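Progress report, Aim 2. The chain analyzed during this reporting quarter is listed below.
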Amino acid sequence: MKPAQPAVIRNLLLLMLAVILIAAGYALRHTVSCFLLSFVLAYLLDPLLVYLERNRVRRIYGITILYIILAVFSVIFFMFFVPFLTLRWQSLLHDFPGYLQKIQLLAQGWKSQLLPSAAAEEWRWLVESATEHIDKLLGKIGGGIYAALTRMVFNLFNLVLAPVLVLFMLFYKQTIMDGITSWLPVRRRETLLALGREINGSIGGYIRGQFVVSAIVAVLSSIALFALDVDYALFNGIFAGLASILPFIGVILATLPALFFAYVKFQSGIAMLNVIAAFSVIYFLEGYVIKPLVFKEAMNLNPLVTVIVVMAFGELMGFWGILLAIPIAAACKIVAQYIRQGKFAEEG
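Predicted structure tokens for the chain:
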């Protein structure tokens, strides 16, 4: 029996290490969430510091200027925007049971209209089963909102700790990069550094571009829903911006809450058609105008692979898994291209 080759043993060890890291990340998901928030913020802010450094401003001074600007913005945000959001959120929590009751009454009305007295037993069972599922779904939605409220404590902790972590990431950026570089094998160092630069450009470009796209979609959606007089237009717009992170199915998820509030308020198919038309225009602009302008280079990922990766990482890591799934998949594709092109073997 031949002994196992060193490459096989190395690959098995790497696989075991990846499994251990995934398991540890899931167990420490709140800590990982805080780190990822800081990582994304540092990615968004670092280009500004690089620009200042090119204009002969030392990084420490650039960080000071940046934090002063962010501090002023935060004061304005917490003085004016947060109180408004808090009042609207409290209003939503207060009014949401009423919305559920209206939907349940509407479901009962649909049941009485669709179920004639002489209906067949199979038809009767179908309508009653659909009504029962609607009631269960609405109950889960209501419970999910209150469960999300309890998780806000961890998010508030992240918001307090993240600026400190971002500060260290930005200030010690070069030290961290030098430390990582020193651990790379000398024979493959240049190839690995080139690979790292390409992955960095791909991930950084995607995160910054997606942030801009989500912000634009949130603003356009909020304005459109305000114009249509849909309740809680701002929350629905923010949700639409976040949903735009999801490829392909994001537009469907973004539309559902707005359709819910529009129908409960107006009880009109015209109101729902107006919402669908507004989101169709917004996501047409997002797909064919905004994204081509924001993203300089496409990820060129297989749609099926993209959906599977987003679902898998979303299941493991929640929101951050959804956000980072596509850049991680793109990074894996870049690594695979390097291996297929034999760039590592050239320096072996």
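The mean pLDDT is 76. The radius of gyration is 25 Å. These observations will guide the mutagenesis work planned for the next reporting period.
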